[in-house]
Amino acid sequence: MQDRVVLITGASGGIGSAVARRLAREGASLVLAGRTQQKLDELAAECEGAGSPKAVAVATDVTLKAQVEALFARASATFAQIDVVLNAAGLGILKAIQHLSEEDLDRQLAVNLKGTFLSCQAAVPIMSQQPAGGHIFNIPGILGQYPMATAAAYCASKYAVVGLTKSMALDLKRANVRFTLLYLGGLNTPFWDNAGMRVQRDKMLSAETAADAVAFALAVPAPGVPNEIVIQPDSHQFL
Ligand SMILES: NC(=O)c1ccc[n+]([C@@H]2O[C@H](COP(=O)([O-])OP(=O)(O)OC[C@H]3O[C@@H](n4cnc5c(N)ncnc54)[C@H](OP(=O)(O)O)[C@@H]3O)[C@@H](O)[C@H]2O)c1
């Protein structure tokens, strides 16, 4: 990952921070985004200590177009290129349909879908003009592929990320932008702290598994690209 620049939204979260640490050890430069500047500053310092030549922390609310545009402008002003974008900002509010509020739906669509949309829309013009193109990772998770009780609004936001990503890939057929969808089963991250559902966290995947998946996809030589990676705990295979 030497000489490569990776921008991560939701960088302070379980998946985003695990990927940042992993790619820092492999020598990537990093742009770390999330809403909480202090967490991002601490992570940036840790990543630089672990081998990243430069890690910048940019407080960003991915639901706000102006802030997403400012994030990519800052990345472009700091680095010569943006090679990889990982859209890991997201949240889950898991309740049966009878208990989901309009606000629950709006928040999940705003962060999970619109945030991913805005980030991709900002990344594509930059990546498509780079000689080496670019690689965008979106994370529908397994609930972008299968339904689950209590997940009507969450699944709606994640199935939408799948449609968004696959259609964008067709729009950009000759633009040298690669896409990988990560269909991950439950990972033991802070995602579950406020999701409203009790789960057996000790039986879940670790966030490092997501980092392994990203590292694997980035190691596939161009023009190859793993478009979809599915990883479940072995107790949930093919579910
Ligand atoms: N954990 C799982 O089991 C699992 C499984 C499959 C898929 N996923 C998906 O993977 C992604 C990452 O999940 P995770 O487990 O890493 O969750 P997490 O630990 O809760 O992290 C979520 C991250 O999103 C950021 N965020 C939330 N709202 C934001 C906003 N409006 N603007 C910018 N950043 C925002 C949070 O930082 P701030 O609060 O500081 O902004 C945090 O860094 C999500 O899309 C999730 O749906 C998770």
From TrEMBL:
Keywords: Oxidoreductase. Transmembrane segments: none annotated. GO terms for molecular function: oxidoreductase activity. SUPFAM superfamilies: NAD(P)-binding Rossmann-fold domains. InterPro entries: KR_dom (IPR057326), NAD(P)-bd_dom_sf (IPR036291), SDR_fam (IPR002347). Residues 4-145 form the Ketoreductase domain. Signal peptide: none annotated. Belongs to the short-chain dehydrogenases/reductases (SDR) family. This is Short-chain dehydrogenase/reductase SDR.
